[in-house]
Amino acid sequence: xxxxxxxxxxxxxxxIAAGVIIAILLSKRxxxxxxxxxxxxxxxxxxxxxxxxxxxxxxxSNPYDDGHLYSMDSxxxxxxxxxxxxxxxxxxxxxxxxxxxxxxKSDDMTMMFRGDxxxxxxxxxxxxxxxxxxxxxxxxxxxSGSSLIYNTSDGTQxxxxxxxxxxxxxxxVSRHTYSTASVSDGKVYYSNNGDNHSIYELDVDKRSAxxxxxxxxxxxxxxxxxxxxxxLDNNNSLTRINLTTTGQEILSPAGCSLYNxxxxxxxxYINGDSPxxxxxxxxxxxxxxxxxxSIASISCTSIYTxxxxxxxxxxxxxxxxxxxxxxxxxxxxx
Length: 334
Prior knowledge:
The chain has helices at residues 2-28, 42-46, 109-114, and strands spanning 51-54, 57-62, 68-73, 80-93, 96-102, 118-124, 131-135, 137-144, 147-153, 158-164, 171-174, 182-184, 187-191, 199-203, 208-213, 217-223, 226-231, 237-242, 248-250, 256-262, 265-270, 276-281, 288-291, 295-300, 304-309, 315-319, 327-328. By secondary structure, the protein is mainly beta. Strands 1-2-3-4-5-6-7 form a seven-stranded antiparallel sheet, with no helix packed on it. A four-stranded antiparallel sheet has the order 8-9-10-11, with no helix packed on it. Strands 12-13-14-15 form a four-stranded antiparallel sheet.
């Protein structure tokens, strides 16, 4: 009987050890996202992806701490430092955060010699398990399903590339670079910056682009049944077209150079002699002046919209759908 027990105990220990190993492997597994998942809104990505909200948490680049990665609750409580990386183009889905790091101000010589100044990075919500998925200079990162689409350069050639969320299957999508902010079902919608400024649809899997909407446009964003863009033939007015009815609406006066659509609200910046930030409904009604300054970024989340003035680290916030009371929002470096 004792011999049987001696045989049983090692067997049980082996099974327990195997179970622990399997549990660890499963916890580190990176599951695919649903094909329709996107990592951030087009409007936020057009402002550099400095803020990204998912499941009640906002991940952001802290302007008061050299752009390092932080997180907070949607109501701006529970602020946490996550990473020393200087981050932009933040995306999030599931248990993971993805971003571009650009540690151009780094004084860490070891990091410089390792070639770790730039790249596309994945980490968990608490900043742990950080991994560089693609090294080298990168920008314009957008998550679409289980693919990360971004622009990159080797110093001689700039390209649009994609890589999966596990850091595998890197592919050159195009020998040209495009804004990747507006993604939907594996396709990128962008205003061409070449010979014409029409809106094109880039199929990432097929690596081919086709004309989507003829026009002289900038900053095209597909949102629901509408295509939003800045109309270069109409003094840079913010415009949208209903893709079902083809009806066109002018949403802003001339001089729009930046905008962000969030649900039924649009924030837009009018450049010129009297630069100013406005908020309106997405049909252009109920126009409200927010601030008369030169605006560098507009980032919308469910409770607050954040913006910055050009050449100024000061961060401002306003309730996205509330009264137009602008507040300075300071985040103590940690």
